[in-house]
């Protein structure tokens, strides 16, 4: 595609994702609506509705980039699409309520395929008690494109942005990290093995059920939000971990203007993740730092909640916030520090609101 | 893509679009939110927010299906994407306020391309006084995928659905129809002529400026809604005309459980549309009935508003509503009737909410 007026060409990869999105959206000024509590730059947008806050967040999944249909059952894909959008809303400490789905599908998809996809969407709406209210279905030339928008609500007191972390806050993460990434590696390996035999999807071996489930049918951590509320712990900043711990931690640092120390041996990694990582000669910590699709929550909390957070099931305290001047670093067991790098943007761009 | 559990395969085209979407969305029941005023089946969804109504609508545009970049300037494409979503909100007699944009773009797009696209999006947000508040930017393997969500508001008194048309209501349309379709035909012809010379986009010949502008840079009819409000005319049913008059009229008939008579010689067609149709041996009425991208409003209004609507600029009374048993038909100048057929769904599926 060419445009005779513009002779120069800058590769998106040369700019980096954050700068790219900032360049695109920087010219936009507010036109008429002074009720925007949070625009571009967080897990979702927030509109002040007077007495309550509306949260809007989107998830996009494109075939060949975000999923591979040779090993992804369509039911699970539909479920995961909804989870991805609900997880964004959770990361703002808000409750998901309404869903719209837009799909583009090419002629190679049958009614049965679409029905399987919607079966998964329906299971997710039931699980998260949200309602499908609209969307689009259109033809596509090039495969399956999926878009979910979730609308939710929260209060001024509960709203948690990426920008609220303070020096000395604790850094906490839910569940465990890297399992979905190892599940993906396993599926990719099975795909290579099965190449040439296109009529079957890989069987889920029961030893690998956990990591495969984490990749194919993740869940949003609504349960942890409830737990925090009951414990009267209000996170100061929060984000969901969709592109690895490193990326999520750096987003909090950037938006909160702080630094972070993460203790390497405190990063929660499941034993099944360790086992598969060993088998495949992958460092499980790298899987946790740079893998994707965990849909866990990374949040900061005041230091005085240390005791309660240490004993809270499903939550690990993995580090703490430091001044911005000290940067973001991993701390190894021997006390040395490794600077946290942003993952390579060229391989796979992150979503703009992450 | 295969699924060993499902052996049967039903083509989506064999089912038809309306039945397909109904089959997919029929299993969804309300989970928890009793505030849904309108779900799937109109131009947008409506949530009762207590004292006001929130309207959410989406527009999807996929490369190769909805646009061809060999002749579509990216600035115009960005503008049109926003117009498509704003037009949906207009069709519910609501005011557009907030916008999210999700784009998937492949490596062949440069930063300059994305900037041109966002220039057009920005011009539209300024024109329609709406604010960009969020969205996603992601990599795509296969070209350009665009999704806009517009959030707007209206009141219970003003909300206009597709389902409110009553027997003897007048049928009215804004602007003129078929021009965007003729613009598309011209662009396709130029593309064939220029084939092999991939470095230039077709020049806009000034004789064809109108039909090309209607295709490449349409507008949403916010102005007409204002006019109707000032005249104290509340439409009884409304839809925007995005896939031709026939499809739009049939949607109103289906949702309102009525029939319609449209007088062939009252369908507004611009002289430039006539000229190009003659040159290309296309029936201009067919362009109006089955063409796309007009973004005009088709609405019904009480019979007692006849005089005011006849003299209102930018509005034509083209027919009237009849009982459902009488069906949907065009009336020719000699008084004979031609049954209105739904356009072929297989060529290009409509959006689910249309």
Give a structural overview.
The structure is a homodimer of 354-residue chains. With 354 residues, the first copy, chain A, is of the alpha+beta class. Chain A folds into two domains: 14-27 and 35-154, 2-Layer Sandwich (60s Ribosomal Protein L30, Chain: A); 162-339, Phosphoribosyl-aminoimidazole Synthetase, Chain A, domain 2 (Alpha-Beta Complex), CATH 3.90.650.10. The first copy, chain A, contains eleven helices and 13 strands. The longest helix of chain A is centred in the N-terminal third of the chain and has 17 residues, at 74-90. The first copy, chain A, is globular, with a radius of gyration of 20 Å. Chain A starts with 11 loop residues before the first helix and ends in a 15-residue tail after the last strand. The model of chain A is unreliable at 1-6 and 345-354 (pLDDT under 50). At the A-B interface, helix 1, helix 2, strand 3, strand 4 and helix 4 of A face helix 1, helix 2, strand 3, strand 4 and helix 4 of B.
**Separation, N- and C-terminal Cα atoms of chain A:** 29 Å
* The CATH top-level class label of the largest domain in chain A: Alpha Beta
Shape of chain A: globular
Oligomer, anyone? homodimer
Find the CATH topology of the largest domain in chain A.
Answer: Phosphoribosyl-aminoimidazole Synthetase, Chain A, domain 2
Radius of gyration of chain A: 20 Å
Question: Structural class of chain A, please?
Answer: alpha+beta
SSE pattern of chain A, N- to C-terminal: HHEEEHEHEEEHHHEHEHHEHEEE
Low-confidence runs of at least 5 consecutive residues of chain A: 1-6, 345-354
Question: Biggest interface in this structure?
Answer: A-B, 97 and 97 residues
The proportion of strand residues of chain A reads 15-25%
Query: What's the name of the CATH homologous superfamily of the largest domain in chain A?
Result: PurM-like C-terminal domain
What is the tally of beta strands of chain A?
A: 13
